[in-house]
Amino acid sequence: MMSIEKAKAHLAAYGMADKVLEFSVSSATVELAAKALGCEPAHIAKSILLGQPDGTYLVLAAGDAKLDNRKFKDRFGTKPKMMPYDMVEEAVGHAPGGVCPFGIKEGISVWLDESLRRFSVVYPAAGSSNSAVPMTMDELETASRALGWVDVCKLSEEA
Known about the structure:
This protein is about 25% helix and about 25% strand. It is an alpha/beta fold and about 160 residues long. It is globular, with a radius of gyration of 14 Å. The chain starts with a helix and ends with a strand. About 45% of the residues are buried.
């Protein structure tokens, strides 16, 4: 099953599969997704994938946020280690550019960063490099099966 199909099947359990948007252009980066959607980059819910000693973490954050190493270490007790690009698909089940918390492999810890709470709707990917799904914070919290909200990012200076 293709990644986007896995994501849609996951979202269908929450009545949200029909919300998935597919584009004729790439939405693989925050900038490309914002362009495809016609929104500000900050509204893109990007996936930050970390391979930690105790497992894989997927942190969803606003498109204009960056992981803050100190905040992450304070929260999780370990330095963040970005997942190597060539290991992403194997670890999560989605290739880079389509990583999202929907239809992923078991055992991945999903967290939502506070940077997203500024918005009423954000757009995470939906398993492919040309998809997104508009979600409210409540929908995102439910469908992502997040373990909770964390403050592990900082906004870029120009935000």
